[in-house]
């Protein structure tokens, strides 16, 4: 058994930090939470790892990303969304993306995420089996969404081929302890209503889709179908409690009500949306409507950072700014969205997102002794607003130490960095 202890424990299951507490772990599961002294007395043979000036809390849940795109970080800077996609990203992907590319980029992304406190992420990208392989080998918890799109691309010959490959992915990873598969239709303007109906007919898997990302996208769908993307998904049967909607910046009251009634969830990607000037997701309205909301970094190519603490801070600030109300999305609520909120979005709330007996031991440990963290008047506020991702000292997934104060026990970090540099050289040599 493993005992993790620290002066501060934030379970997220309740909002009050606990002093001098610990978490007891056995076979990757949390089996007890109590004061450090009581746990040491009751379990004297447990292997204790005491963090003397730290806070222990649940690992963060990144609800949307394109992990391999970490290799495209910084390319096409300051371009608007459509120009960025059409003149920079898509041409580079067409010439370079392969299973090798995906493995290298996913390793880099996972290294960044575990070193900044994220223990679970959703990925939607080409060659999903390669990403799943890396996640499993790294001990990282992941939802791998098989990309579904109507037209041929670097991974599939069209929609039917994409469905076949999604079925193979699902069969291979069924029942895995860390890897969960999902269906990943790109968007309503790239996947027809007939294809959406076919996806609806596949039971038993989550579905993640980009939607309402920009006003232009919604206008395009309205021009084609005469109604909003949410209405199109509702008409095909896709709008349900297994649907994960990503972005949702251009959503109105009618669509909010439909999402709430259906029980669908939303991944809010504030950093990416702000960087590409795509709009602002109305988080306060969604929260008030009872819609589960989590945070996503999106890909590093449209964010530059996979630090979900940073994304959480931006989400809180953007919500305050757009509502002109400083009370909107306070730090404690923002942390909930970054942890248990994200778990709900991915359908993993019974396994992760809080520190509770019976849940899996996905834990991050943060050093709170730095100048920027003092004085510790409000722990949630310090974690959200002072760059806590850079203070992460340890990360555990399923009770396994995957990040330890600059070292990566489950990754060959030197190889990961060398691969990233090699891809930088290869991409720079291409005439875009």
Written overview of the protein:
39% of the residues lie in helices and 21% in strands. With 432 residues, the protein is α/β, with parallel strands linked by helices. It has two domains: 2-58 and 362-404, Urease, subunit C, domain 1 (Roll); 60-345, Metal-dependent hydrolases (TIM Barrel), CATH 3.20.20. Strands 1, 2, 3, 4, 5, 14, 15 and 16 form an eight-stranded mixed beta sheet that branches. Helix 3 (99-114) runs parallel beside helix 4, helix 12 crosses helix 13 and helix 13 (331-345) crosses helix 14. The N and C termini lie far apart (54 Å).
Quick overview of this protein structure:
The chain has 432 residues and is an alpha/beta fold.
Question: Terminal Cα separation, in Å?
Answer: 54 Å
Mean pLDDT: 96
The profile of the biggest β sheet is: 8 strands, mixed
- Whole-number radius of gyration? 21 Å
So what's the CATH class of the largest domain?
Answer: Alpha Beta
Name the CATH architecture of the largest domain: Alpha-Beta Barrel
Structural class computed from helices and strand pairing = alpha/beta
Q: Portion of residues in helices?
A: 25-40%
Unreliable segments of 5+ consecutive residues: none
- The CATH homology group name of the largest domain: Metal-dependent hydrolases
Number of domains: 2
CA-based shape: globular
Total helical elements: 15
CATH topology term of the largest domain: TIM Barrel
Q: How many strands in all?
A: 16
